[in-house]
Amino acid sequence: MRKNSIKKVDLPEFIRLSHYRIQIIQINSHISYELAEQQGSFHSREMKIYVDETIIEKGGTIACDLLKHEIMHAIFYIRSMEDKKEEDIVNGMATHYTEVEKNNPDYVRWKIANLHDGNI
């Protein structure tokens, strides 16, 4: 590998959250935007996160934001936060997002590479 070449870090196939294994699936942009009118979605019944493949392929902070957004939906669901007060929601989000980072080193490598355009 040349000194200036950047190795792409692949998006992990799943995220571990609590005792769940949440699959991450990239979907075609046409399906994502034209049919569902969204860039990503979390589906609690199947424990799956769907993300727009074009956004993920482009990488960068937008890709990080998209996946983190969907992970937050998963945390909200798993922690049953619908009727919680702000402090309880923020506390639960912080705790479980820290857990996601601790238990998913492939996700953390992908996130850092994308936040810094591969310059880590």
Précis, in short:
With 120 residues, the protein is an alpha+beta fold. Helix content is 51%, strand content 18%.
Describe this structure in words.
The chain has 120 residues and is α+β, with helices and mostly antiparallel strands. It has a single domain (14-115), classed as Zincin-like. The chain has five helices and four strands, in the order E-E-H-E-E-H-H-H-H. The chain has helices spanning 29-35, 53-58, 60-78, 86-103, 105-115; strands spanning 14-17, 20-27, 40-43, 48-52. The chain has a four-stranded mixed β-sheet, sandwiched between helices. Strand 1 (14-17) and strand 2 (20-27) form a beta hairpin. Helix 3 crosses helix 4 (86-103) and helix 3 (60-78) packs antiparallel against helix 5 (105-115). The protein is globular, with a radius of gyration of 15 Å. The two termini are 16 Å apart. 22% of the residues are buried.
Outline the secondary-structure elements.
Layout: E1 14-17, E2 20-27, H1 29-35, E3 40-43, E4 48-52, H2 53-58, H3 60-78, H4 86-103, H5 105-115
Parallel strand pairs: 2-4
Antiparallel strand pairs: 1-2, 3-4
Could you list the spans in which at least 5 consecutive residues all have pLDDT below 50? 1-5
According to CATH, what is the class? Alpha Beta
Overall body shape? globular
> What is the strand content?
15-25%
Numbering strands along the chain, what is their spatial order in the largest sheet?
A: 1-2-4-3
For the report, how would you describe the main beta sheet?
4 strands, mixed
Q: Care to count the β-strands?
A: 4
